[in-house]
User: Fold this.
Amino acid sequence: MNTKQKNMWSNIGTVFFTVLAALWMYPIIMVVMNSLKVERAITTDAAFALPTAETFAGLTNYISALGAQGFLKSFGYSLFITVSSVFLILLCCSMCAWYINRVNNLISKLMYLLCAFSMVVPFQMVMFTLSQTADRLDIFGLKFNTPWTICFIYLGFGAGLAVFMFSGFVKSIPLEIEEASMIDGCSPIQTYFKVVLPILKPTMISVGVLETMWVWNDYLLPTLVLDIKKYRTIPMLIQYFRGSYGRVEMGPMMACIVMTVLPVVVIYLLGQKHIIKGVLAGAVKG
Assistant:
């Protein structure tokens, strides 16, 4: 294939993927546009048109969304659940992966296989048993159907992918570094936090971004575990979004969706290069 043919196929590929990206972005653009329109423009054919002087609502929908349905409370629940869940996943799964690779006995291999197997088990297979267990389980007066404890359930479901990715990277860490730290007097815990954890930074960011996107956008697990009347995360709030007299107000609902998606998009854009580095490090070096 000569240079001219390569350039032609390169241009065709560029056009194809540009069109494909535009199709993927179109629903997001539609939501953003409609979040800036008045109600009557969203429920008619004007929903597919750009905002005009007559249909432009400014920030009215965003103000209404912030004041309706307890948006700030739901945002706080989602933020706490996401931060606590991702923190537990990063800490516990990185330590588990380090243990699995350094001990390397029958039990550790079985643990790794169980974590890997959990990635192929559909959530629908265990969701009813899980919801009943969360409702009935009571350890030292600690219930597992509240926003303060659901992070432990997320830890169980997020462990498979996290341990798999951490294990691939831990294999690339020279054992001599850890042995040198222990000769200097470090305990295993000190070796992990002072030596291993800093080296795991690329994979930490990769797993953190992926798990954040999952937990923040998750609708099914909180709906099954939490009491809908008491606690509603952001995805649950959007599902049950109602305005005055129980009517769905499309403008504030669109604004709510935009404010929900925006934090995750920002986190992904900031961490996308680290995701690629972390995945490649675990796949190639492991």
Summary: The chain has two domains: 3-60, 71-285. The chain has 13 helices and two strands.
